Amino acid sequence: MTKSYKPLDCHQHDHLELACMHGYLIELQLVDGQCIRCTPLTTVTKADKTEWLRVQPVSEQQGVTPVEMLEIRLDNLSKMIVLTPKAQFSEIAFTR
What we know:
The radius of gyration is 13 Å and the shape is globular. The chain has a single domain (12-93), classed as SH3 type barrels. The protein has 1 helix and 6 strands. The protein is mostly beta strands. Strand 2 (35-45) and strand 3 (51-57) form a beta hairpin. It has one helix at 10-22, and strands at residues 26-30, 35-45, 51-57, 70-73, 77-82, 91-93.
């Protein structure tokens, strides 16, 4: 059984949208401790009203075939760290 969905606050969602619009390189820290370095592409709302972040993971190595896109449910996010220099913000902690 899937845990019930807990949406993000609007201002936290706005930061995700900004990261997508500007194509920032980010590191996502998930509630399970996993870290994903990626470029956020868009947010997606599924039929069951859960919201997801579609990302393109980034390889640390030059010349490596890009990893397939991932979708991460927003209530699995713990923190987003922006790695792009001179971005409009540097870090956001996701609280519920």
